[in-house]
Specification:
This protein is about 70% helix and about 0% strand. It is mainly alpha-helical. Helix 5 crosses helix 6 and helix 8 packs across helix 9.
């Protein structure tokens, strides 16, 4: 937890309200909410060299992406880097994460499976990292 997050958390504990904490700290209540969420989600520290990190962990990264249940955004978060940074490093190694021409059949099948489990297009989008409109369009085209 950063010192700023600690300060926000302390003020929130005193006030028990994001709006009151925001007013006391002179920031928006959304900033208080985000700081509290981020404080509860420990992040791995960024590796010294993303390139070296990706080289060392390429097998684990590709396994997570190939299983269909873990989005690029989630894998990137676990690696401590931005999704676009991970996408760029994978592309230099010849691994396409979103091939031109749309999502692959395995990914679309995972959307259908998740929809069958009762998840909404919004929830599927959040879980897989695909745009909600794309998931929604695909499911409607399938009559789901």
């Amino acid at each position: 937890m950063t010192p700023r997050q600690q300060k926000i958390a302390n003020v929130y504990k005193q006030t028990q309200s994001t709006k009151k904490a925001a007013k006391r700290l002179k920031i928006s209540h959304q900033a208080v909410q985000q700081a509290l969420v981020r404080a509860d989600q420990p992040r791995e520290t960024a590796p010294v060299s993303y390139d070296a990190y990706v080289n060392e962990n390429i097998d684990a990264i590709t396994t997570m992406l190939d299983d269909g249940d873990t989005s690029l955004a989630e894998v990137a978060r676990q690696c401590g880097m931005a999704p676009e940074t991970l996408r760029r490093h994978l592309k230099t190694r010849g691994i396409e994460t979103n091939p031109k021409g749309g999502y692959d059949a395995k990914t679309r099948a995972s959307w259908e499976r998740l929809h069958g489990q009762g998840l909404s297009p919004y929830d599927i989008s959040r879980k897989t990292g695909a745009p909600r409109s794309t998931v929604d369009r695909h499911l409607r085209a399938r009559g789901l």
